[in-house]
Write a structure and sequence with these properties.
This is RNA methyltransferase. By secondary structure, the protein is α/β, with parallel strands linked by helices. 36% of the residues lie in helices and 19% in strands. α1 crosses α2, α8 packs parallel to α9 and α8 runs parallel beside α12. 38% of the residues are buried.
Amino acid sequence: MITSMSNAQIKHIQQLMKKAKARRESGLFVVEGMKMFREAPKDRIEKVYASTSFLESGDNRAVLEEKGFGSESPDMEEVDDKVFRSLSDTVTPQGILCLVRQVDTPLSSMLEARQPLLMILEDLQDPGNLGTILRTGEGAGVSGVILNKNCVDLYNPKVIRSTMGSVYRMPVLTVDSISDILPELKKQGVRTYAAHLRGEHFYDQEDFRGKTAFFIGNEGNGLSDELSGQADCLIKIPMQGQVESLNAAMAAGILMYETSRQRRKVL
């Protein structure tokens, strides 16, 4: 049992929770709670940490054993309650966290769908927005989410929490520059749309039933002129009152579900 906050494993977890660089270098990220543990793919779990009080429950131990992390497993560690609380990123820790291996999905895999739907995010900074886009994207049938390197880290604990498990299932790719992938999208016949205040048409006046990609920009500044200038079409969401723009995740959700609606051929 781990009883010291100076334990090397504890320090490693703390680094993974606080620093994107540590996550990148190790290829791991931290997830907390029973739901996130249950949904994590077994082959991607590197290590499980459970508090002493968590392990006092027979039901909890059964869940661990069911997934192959019983008391005899070398990949499961018991952690003193006080030490575990120092690790938790939540107000009321559930007593279980695990280290999970990161996965980058190649663009080619995202384009294998008959009619791909991609969300391409530029310089997004809010963890909640990114997590919500992944979660909404799974629900709307998105083929993949592509981030440029200036976006908030996909494996930030706040992003992970807000995905509610979708981080395990939604294909995601991080690229140095979005411009680098645009030639391949064009080659594959993907039509790109930029959500922009200077949009030529309202979003519901376009046909998204073909191969489609949406550009979503930074919360404060929107899309860069460089990227919006490379889109095949600028679209806008109609606004009333004095509102100029919507939250990035809200705008993305509207576009994803309009695409889903059109593809279901709902009038």
